[in-house]
Design brief:
Order of helices and strands: HEEEEEEEEHH
Strand order of the largest sheet: 1-2-3-4-5-6-7-8
Structural class: alpha+beta
Strand content: 25-35%
Shape: globular
Largest sheet: 8 strands, antiparallel, barrel
Distance between the termini: 139 Å
Number of helices: 3
Radius of gyration: 30 Å
């Protein structure tokens, strides 16, 4: 039986470590978490905030672009669950999305116009800049795609602070300006009384 030299023993370990190092050097896969915009006919119709709850993703109406004839503060009057009569703005309308790489599956999406809940899945582009949301009845084949575009994180400043506080509490705390130091009460200036004028001698 041929003896293995030290070099032959070390070589597989070195190759293994190099492979692990290469894996570690690869950039992390993008996440669907973030702020997204839906555009129709060249105009924005909504901003959606997608939040990661330890691998389960939720989508929220972050900003509405309503038409002139729409009610100013629409509510989900036809919802039958915990969202009954809740305002659309700030409402959780995508729930239970489980991540599998660039795919998010086994979730559901609410249409607040009629209160119906559909099965849903999402697919993230490899560059992380577009998100395809598909709602469907029964099987995915009978569904409809919506393609959303990622907005820069700076746009979160345009979202109602109450929504950020509810769904991104850590970020909300970081966005708060530091409290100004309490001003000490102003000390009134001492005024010197004018010297009395001597009375004229008689």
């Amino acid at each position: 039986m041929r003896k293995l030299t030290g070099f032959q023993l070390i070589l597989p370990i070195v190759i293994g470590l190099a492979f692990v190092g290469e894996l570690a050097a690869q950039p992390a896969e993008p996440s669907a978490a973030g702020l997204w915009e839906k555009v129709e006919k060249g105009k924005p119709v909504g901003w959606f905030l997608v939040v990661d709850h330890n691998g389960v993703f939720e989508g929220v109406f972050a900003k509405l672009f309503l038409d002139a004839d729409d009610p100013p503060n629409p509510v989900c009057s036809k919802c039958a669950d915990d969202r009954k009569d809740a305002p659309w703005l700030g409402m959780s309308f995508i729930r239970d999305m489980k991540r599998d790489g660039l795919k998010y599956e086994n979730g559901n999406v609410l249409d607040p116009r009629d209160g119906k809940i559909y099965k849903a899945k999402m697919t993230l582009s490899p560059d992380g800049q577009t998100l395809t949301m598909r709602g469907y009845l029964g099987i995915s084949l009978f569904g409809k795609d919506e393609v959303w575009t990622r907005l820069p994180d700076t746009e979160l400043a345009q979202v109602d602070p109450a929504i950020i506080a509810k769904y991104l509490p850590a970020q909300a705390a970081a966005m708060k300006p530091p409290a100004a130091p309490a001003k000490s009460p102003a000390v009134p200036k001492k005024t010197t009384a004018p010297a009395p004028v001597p009375a004229p001698a008689r």
